[in-house]
């Protein structure tokens, strides 16, 4: 039976709001990680059967099938195709699922999965602002009469449902920054980050969003986004950011033929739907479904990456699963590092498989909530341990 393995995984640094990557075209940012990915393993780009790329804001500079444009900007042969997909925040995690499925089915021998988002250049929600109508048809409005789909509302609902106080949310957020800072100091991201050349001749080589000087008191002074009894603030939510990540996927047999040593196998993958109004609780059923599919339990998993879209998303997942906080987002998450929408799924996967290799963990699980009420979940098996 064919399988799908990850031979290499890289990512750009994550640029903060109005930071270094704001000057970089998202096509060029994508091309940078594509070239770095293949340079690391010495694979010629002409052997890649497809580039499956996630991107949420597919307008302006990110329109016109950014995957194909990135292939061309990277200087790869014109024979290499690319396709761009959008599953909200899970776009590049879904890209990995599609690439793995293509390899397992035999449609691909070698594929690249990943994604990008330049939120400075293409602001979140840009596609809704171009004057071409409302994506919610009358049928949807009738089904959810009088209800506005809003992620802030969903984050507040989770905080209430799982009894997550404002203090808990801020404490969790502070830990995210502390863990990310410690990871940088320990060189934990060195193996996954590739520098990005900036138009001014400099290079960005580090994640810009980590706030080492933040404190619980400073976080507590931030006003809630929902004024009356709100708990969600800019401090306990993910950051607006820019970034890209890419993973090289092939079968174990093909890796052996090329003399390559895979990092991890895509052991199981799934996607679920959930209430589109609260919309952010999907990682809970997604985790249960992927574990059942893999015939594993929570105790079998050595590390978890649960996307920190909001602290309440992770808090709800922790309360629902009973997993210890220390096993989740050990190197920090999107609250500290940033959440470049279409690139985040691939970023989490990249960080997770490198972390599993460093720590000698056999299994790792990644999951993330998505707009519209969905969630992806993936289990990776470390192939670098006996």
TrEMBL record:
Pfam families: Thiolase_C, Thiolase_N. It is an enzyme of class 2 (transferase). Keywords: Acyltransferase, Transferase. It comes from the Bacteria. Belongs to the thiolase-like superfamily. Thiolase family. The active site is at residues 89, 339, 369. This is Acetyl-CoA C-acyltransferase. It comes from Antrihabitans cavernicola. Residues 261-381 form the Thiolase C-terminal domain. PROSITE patterns: THIOLASE_2 (PS00737). Residues 5-252 form the Thiolase N-terminal domain.
